[in-house]
Backbone:
């Protein structure tokens, strides 16, 4: 392979990688959020009391997301409109809101509001 072709392919690869990194930057809600607390009724507890093995939500590019609840990982999708976020896992939609670096959501609509921080 000659030198010009190698440089051309290298440049193309750099452009493709740069575009993939920018894809999520269009939506300010992208990123990894780690659960800090959970609230049921008037009771709020630290996340590690509910999920000793951790809980997080990673809102990824192209509407993909990964949710970890007590060490179990679930793949799903997400979409946002302004500060409203909808996460779909296993066919079930969960609606939440983002304010700054805080995502508040009741996953699977079980009556437990979880607060995640980026």
Residues:
């Amino acid at each position: 392979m000659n030198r010009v072709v190698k440089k051309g392919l290298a440049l193309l690869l750099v452009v493709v990688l740069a575009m993939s990194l920018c894809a999520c930057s269009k939506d300010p809600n992208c990123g990894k959020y780690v659960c800090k607390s959970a609230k049921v009724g008037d009771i709020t507890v630290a996340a590690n009391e509910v999920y000793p093995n951790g809980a997080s939500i990673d809102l990824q590019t192209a509407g993909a997301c990964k949710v970890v609840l007590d060490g179990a990982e679930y793949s799903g999708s997400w979409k946002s409109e302004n500060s409203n976020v909808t996460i779909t896992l296993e066919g079930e939609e969960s609606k939440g809101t983002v304010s700054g670096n805080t995502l508040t959501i009741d996953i699977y609509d079980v009556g437990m509001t979880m607060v995640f921080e980026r």
Observations:
- The longest helix spans residues 3-22.
- Strands lie at 31-40, 43-46, 55-59, 64-69, 72-81, 84-89, 92-99, 102-105, 113-117.
- The chain has one domain: 26-117.
